[in-house]
Amino acid sequence: MLNEQTGNGNVKQTFWKSILFKKFSSPLVIVFLLAAALFISVVVYKTGFIGIGAILILIIGLPILYGIVVYPKFGITVLILASFFINYVSEILPEEVPIGTLLDAITYLLILGFFIKHKSEQNWSYFKNPISKIILIWLGYNLFQVINPVASSVLAWVYTVRTVGFIMLMYFVFVYHIRSVSFIKFLLKLWLALDVVAGISAFQQENFGFLPFEQKWLYSDPLRVSLLFIEGHMRKFGIFSDPVTFSYNMIIGSLLCIALIMGNIATRKKIILGCMAAFFLTVMLYSGTRAAYVLLPASLGILAVINFNKKVLAFTIVAGCMLGVLIVMPTSNPLIKRFQTAFKPSDDPSYNVRAENQKRIQPFIQSHPFGGGLGSVGVWGRRFSPNSMLAKFPPDSGYVRVAVEMGFVGLILFCTLFFTVLKNGINFFFRIRDPQLKNYCMAMILVVFAFNIGNFPQQAIVQYPSNILFYLSIAILVACMRLDTEQEEAKQKLINDSTLKPELS
């Protein structure tokens, strides 16, 4: 054994010597390295930190770009990581830095890698299901909006379709590259780990105050402060762009934990998941987002329906009783008080304002079947068509925004998309035989259902990372059914082969 180790060491030394003396001793290589060192020095001297950043992008960025295209699992991981941290990093950088184009670039590279890989395999069977068809129809309708005659600005469509339209293509990328149970498990672990990071950030903001760069970003816009500072309390948002996105992701993280606890896993892991769920729900209260409070009981309701058994029923009854006590109990805690108002919408002034706005916009929706154009409301509406009526309209609800921008035709298609996903997802849940895949399928049903409910009071699937996670959840649903079918076919083939062997002998 000792001789083998020594031998290996000699081989390694010989290898590195050959690299250093044979490769790097070449005059051409030495000239190239000297020229590169001189170039880097001049760039850093002339441009300072900007030059250093540019050089690092070239050295680190190019291999990452190559990895995203050639290794799709790596690319999907980078996309999810970037979608979680994109807004947090933007708080540090100057406003003029177009960091949002980073996610656009990753998306386009993944699509490029998808077509390159698919060219050699030519397998469209992954997408032969109702969910893929309705997503294609919805994507086509979003693209069709570019010729909407009522739209005030084509540029608003261009900027909006990036985060609404082309993100849908990620569904097809996810479905195509999720080919193993182990990769699904990895994605769920990554998802929960990033939620923990987001939760810790909000915990720090609530209990220790904002970091200097967070505080600078927060107070740089008086309008932002006025929206977040409510009843003497600053709403927390963690690493995300706003409290709504943060709270929805915490709720979804807790639902993931609750669903995974019901799987066939070790008790130690169930305890960890239970603690994570409790942590997510606690920090979610820091956001002050009333809409998020309703998502948990609504999602647990569908969990009790599709996975009906004594344990789930007991858990649902206990959770319902605890929720009832929390809603009616007297308290001086401002977070719990705000939580209680979520279940009394008629007493909520902001809810009444939203209801009035929705009533005011109804005549426009009824008279414009294709809407006012994608991007006609919100940030891009105010930027590209500031004098239009829709630019000044606060959509609040995701469904109302779809109805205003894409008409009642678009709203019908959008609702059909949710219905198709949930209907097929529930069918998959009852058809899947593998317990692990069945558990993952149930978790994704809860996630999609929560997005469905959450999209009524707020815009649930517009901001990063929610838009990425929404289509990832749908893709995992489809992948679970496909993987289970492949497993059953493999088992049947083994049975057939084993029965044929005695007959041949």
UniProtKB/TrEMBL annotation:
The keyword Ribosomal protein does not apply. The chain crosses the membrane at residues 24-43, 49-69, 76-93, 99-118, 130-148, 154-174, 186-203, 246-266, 278-306, 312-329, 364-382, 402-425, 437-456, 468-485. It is found in: Membrane. It is a multi-pass membrane protein. One of its GO terms (molecular function) is ligase activity. Pfam families: Wzy_C. Residues 277-415 form the O-antigen ligase-related domain. Keywords: Ligase, Membrane, Transmembrane, Transmembrane helix. This is O-Antigen ligase. One of its GO terms (cellular component) is membrane. It comes from Mucilaginibacter pineti.
